[in-house]
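Structure tokens please, single chain.
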Amino acid sequence: MKRTMAVLRILEEKTDSDHRITMDELIAELDEAGISAERKSVYASIDALKESGHKIVFSRAGGIQGYYIEHMFSLSQAMLICDAAAGSPSLSRKQTAEMISAVNERLSIYQRKAVVPFQLCQTKTDNDHVMQIMELLLKAIAGAHPVEFRYYDLTVSKKKEYRRNSQIYHLNPYAVMSFEGRYYCVLWSEKHRSFANYRIDKMESAKVLEDTFDPLPFDPASWRRTSFHAYRGKAQTVVIRFDLSMANIVFDEFGDDIIISQTDSTSFTASIRTSVTPTLISWLLMFTGRLTVLKPAELISELLATAQTLEKTYNN
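Here you go.
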């Protein structure tokens, strides 16, 4: 067993699809580690590792033959995970370092050199338990269990100020979502009969309760569209005629499941389920001349009022 685990460590550390190790090199590495081995015993260790699910490949290329192990992450996967961790304000510096270290441990020494250092965002939380709380919430969602927690804000002096006079929240979890690097849990309040987003990095003393609840109908995609970013609020159907050149911009902003009701040689008309908010109006104004709002009248009135305010401000 000791020899087999040493073989695994050597393969994980010093091989990947671009770097193989010969049998002689493998035996030499074992010998340096103080483990005596010969070809037959190393072959047996490799077979045992394969039987336990490790993907060990023997390859002949460029006149060289040898072994390598297929790692859990490719370079691009490792980069995306590490970059997301470094850029997330929901993860503390400690948990970010732990996650990047865990990913690096699953790469070869050659792959680690290719994963460049990541710039940490400047708004990292001080909550070192976000990942544990997230795991707890995900298990609660899977089992339809209510959760309890305390919820806080930070004061100007960066001290915790607990909401509801530090009373315990008792809510039903439905989904974990991310937005701009932060992670939220969508929770249902029986008292208020409504859903709301709670930042996971502001949760404390979280606990899964033993009893269960009957989940209500819940559409994560629809909730995401109407509760985050520019479009938080009561959803309604907005009909807009866009210049054809805006197709990619519209899909990036609202998703590719919007309804295209009409197209011609210069434009297309789309029905978008969203909310009328100041940020939506700002987005529409940014593309003045390339779109025309057709419905609802409320949004058209908002745009006209904004235009009049702008004209008055700058004429003065």
